[in-house]
Structures are given as C-alpha cells and as structure tokens.
Amino acid sequence: MRVQSGVALVLLLAVAVQGRILHHQHSAQLRHEGHKEHLHIKPREGRANQQKPAGLRASAERLGMLSMRMLHRARAAANEALVRWEGQDLATVAFGLTMLVTMSLLTYIAITEEQDGRQHTKEVGTPATDEELDNQELDEDDSDKDEDTAAAKALRRAVSRPLAPPSAARMVKSQIGFDAGITEFCVISHQSSAREVLEMHVMQSWLAEWPRLILSIFGGADQFDTDESQFDLDAFSQGLVKAALLTRAWVITGGTKSGVMDLVGKAMRAHDKHRRVPCIGITPFGALTPKWRKLLLSTKNRSHHVLDAAVAQQEHKGDNPGDNEGVAIQDNHTHSILCDNGSVGHAAFGSEANFRDQFESYAAKNSEGESDAPRVMLLVNGGMISVKMIAEQLNHCSCLVTCRGTGRAADALAELADLAELGGAGAEEATLEKEVAVKDCIEKHMKFRPSVEQAQSFLDI
Q1: How far does CA 73 lie from the centroid of its chain?
Q2: What mean pLDDT do residues 334-338 have?
Q3: What single DSSP character describes residue 327?
Q4: Is the pLDDT reported for residue 103 higher than 60?
Q5: Helices 428-446 and 408-418 sit at what angle, rounded to 10 degrees?
C-alpha cells in the first residue's frame, strides 16, 4: 500500500511540474505580446541577418501535446496498477513515469534554448548601416520605458553622436587583449562631456563604484632617466599601489607605454596582480602609431570581440618608417580613454588635457564619501606639457606632490619652492634677482633657457 501511495504521489508531482512549465511559458508569452502592443512596437523587416526562431508558444505547445499523450498513457497504466497491483505492472508504471519526466525536461530545455537563441540574436546580430544602428537604439529605448526615466533616456540618446571622434561616425569602444590581461577602451572626441562619459559609459559598463581618492600622475613620456641613487622607483611603485588599495582610489595617467606612465603600469602589474585598482589612461588618440590607430578603429562599435594588441605591436621589415612613429598603449592599465581632436603626431599631445581635468573633477565630486574625494597630483620627472597641464588644473586639486630626484620639471619645482622666500615685497632688485634665479633654475634642470611664458607656468604652480 505504501508503494502504491508513493507511485501516486510521484505521478501527481510530475503532472504539477508539467502544468507549471506550460502555464508559466504561456503567461510569459502573453505578457510579452501585451507589452509590445502597449508600446506600439512594430517588427523591423528586411533584416536578412536576423532570422527569428520558431514561435516560442508553438514549440511549447507541440512538446506539451506530446508529453500530455505520454501522461495519459502513464496515468492509465498507473490506475490499472493501483487497482490490480501485480509484479509485471511495476515496469509499466516505471516506464510511464520515465517518459513523463523526460518530456517535461525536454519541454523546459527547449524553452530555455529558444530564450537564449533570442538573446543571442539580439546581442550578436549587427546592423549594416548607421541608420539601422540609430533605429535599433530608438527601439531599445522604447522597450525600456518602464525601467528608465525620461531624463536618462534623453541623456543616452545624446551620448553617441556628440562623443564621436573626428575619425569615426560614433564613439568607438571595445577591448584590447594584452599578455597582461584585457584593457577596456573607448575612442571619443576631445570635446566630449566628461559627465556623459562617466555616467553613461564608465560607471555603467566598466566600474562598479566611484573613487574615494584620485591619484592623478603626470610626468615625462621621454627623457625619463631617473638616477636610482636619487629616487627609489621600486619603493615609489609599492607605495603607490598600497595607497590606492587602502583608499579605494582611481589611478589616472596619460596611458602610453613610455616614461612615468609605463612605470605606473608596471607597478600595477607587479603589486596588483588581480587588478583591483582601476588604472585609467587618458591618451591623445593622434599620438598613437598608425598601426594602433588602425587597430582601434577596426571595431567601429560593430563587434564585441577582443582586439589583439600583437597586431599593433609587431614590426615588419617592409614597414614604412612612419608606421612605427608615435606611442603605444600601456598594457597594464585596466581602462583606456582616447581623445581624438583630428591632430596626428606630436601636435596631438595636450589635446586631452581639458577632458582629463573635467573627468577627474566630476569623478571626485561624485565620490561615495560624504564630501568630494581628494584629488592629488603627483609629478614624476616631466616636461613643459606636464608643467602647463598642472598649472591649468592645480586650482581644482587638493595638492601637488613633486618627486624630487626624478629629474627635469619635478626637480625644478622642488628647487623653486626652496627659493620662494627670495626677495622682499616691493624690492625691485629682489624681483629682478628672483626672475634670473627662476630662469637659471629651470635651465639647470630642463636643459633649455625658458621663455617668459614658460617661466610663468612654473611660477603659477
């Protein structure tokens, strides 16, 4: 009798599972169609590369009918076995139960696979023209009406075109695969709104939380020859990563594989192997080598595959001399933002300065603390571009730390700080003496005689 009760209970549970699956799928389909009718969304036609799979409801009904036939047979066999329980009927009941459970699982698997297929088609299917991309964005906006506010949708529509760099029709974004790991990147206009980039891209796609501290590092991209006896680079690297980890900071550099930026990237690789610290490079796109520029633009926002950095890094004997002129992206930064103003070569350096200033300021104001996150500048070595950028941005920062012993601009500023008390107010002789001392100090460390404007940039700091 216990065996008979157990068989009956299993049958009832199997029937309940089968009914629940079909009922849930039918209700979901009705909700989906009702939602589309409410939003007046019309299906797009003429998309050869997006063949819609068979109707979800039809698949569920076909499998459901087959499983229900097996259910009736299993129940008939079970009823007969319960009325006249004999040894040979046990095989019949077991067979019916097995078929019932199997068909129920097949129904569930078919439903899941078709849902995944729809999602895959939505993600992988790519429109052929910019016009189709725009239409797709509008349709996606409409389908999210009950999730997004009107303000958020308006901001999202405004992001794509204004962020477009001169070299592309829209913002370019993808991933680069280095030996050290994956670097997320985007190519934008140098006039892009830092707020839009942060809110609609960085914080939605890249990072999960705002910074508690911003460590903005400036320094030389070339002529970076630091005397180890004057400055301990290894201790600097360890201290930088430790401070960033303890304070949940963002580390921001120029992002190229040269000078202090390469030093910071290598420090991250050595002391933050799990990439817990966001290390963001903000780089002038036109300063990259032609191979790098070609590689980054090859995605055109039309694919989600990882770009192979080796394509831009390798050199061939048949290359033109200009193919390898420029800088490369540092391979240990977690993220890279490339600002394009249309210039190429050395003229592009500094074109990212305004965006970087706005980016760091806005990130600091939206920190997770009760007040703005401290924004600290660190100068390691450096030339006139670094000096000019610091002079323009210093009023927006908490403080500037110059690393004495690293050479050039850092040593010049450190020595100028020692000369700050030279001369008294209103003393003409002291003023002239101070001006000469300033130029001598800059010439001593920078290896050139500064102009009045260049000397003023040092004094502004």
Answers
A1: 56
A2: 97
A3: B
A4: no
A5: 160
CA separation for the pair 139, 142 (Å, rounded):
5
For residue 342, give the 3-state DSSP assignment. coil
pLDDT in the model for residue 9: 44
* Phi and psi based region of residue 311 (left: phi greater than 0; alpha: psi -120 to 50; beta: remaining): alpha
Q: How far apart are CA 217 and CA 180, in angstroms?
A: 21
Degrees, nearest 5: CA angle 245-249-251: 105
In degrees rounded to 5, what are phi and psi of residue 310? -60, -25
DSSP 253-317: E--BSSHHHHHHHHHHHHH-TT--S-EEEEEEGGGB-HHHHHHHHTSTTS--PEEETHHHH---T
Q: Which helix (H) or strand (E) holds 174?
A: strand 172-177
The Cα–Cα gap between 255 and 264 comes to 9
Mean pLDDT of the chain: 75
CA-based nearest residue to 187, from 213, 169, 205, 212? 169
Residue 65, pLDDT above cutoff 80: no
The two tokens of residue 238 are: 């360890």
39/327: higher pLDDT: 327
What order of strands is seen across the sheet that includes strand 172-177?
Answer: 306-308, 172-177, 182-189, 335-340, 279-284, 249-253, 213-219, 375-380, 399-402
C-alpha neighbours within 13 Å on the C-beta side of residue 369: 14
Nearest alpha carbon to residue 407 among 447, 349, 448, 449: 447
Task: Using the structure block, give the residue that is written with the tokens 């100028």.
Answer: 416
Beta pairing class for 249-253 and 279-284 = parallel
Residue 257 region by backbone torsions, left for phi larger than 0, else alpha for psi between -120 and 50, else beta: beta
139 alpha carbon, distance to own chain's centre: 24
Count of Cβ atoms closer than 10 Å to residue 287 Cβ? 27
Residues in the chain: 461
CB 307 within 8 A of CB 298: yes
The answer to whether the CB of 287 falls within 8 A of the CB of 326 is yes
Q: Give the tens place of pLDDT for each residue, 395-418.
A: 999 999 999 999 999 999 999 998
Residue (of 229, 216, 278) closest to 250 by Cα position = 278
Tell whether the model's pLDDT for residue 14 goes beyond 90.
Answer: no
DSSP-derived 3-state class of residue 186: strand
Residue 150 has pLDDT above 80, yes or no: no
For residue 299 the two structure tokens come to: 């995605």
Q: Is 379 within 8 Å of 402 (Cβ atoms)?
A: yes
Would you state the structure tokens that stand for residue 202, as one six-digit string? 């960085």
Any idea what DSSP says for residue 345? G
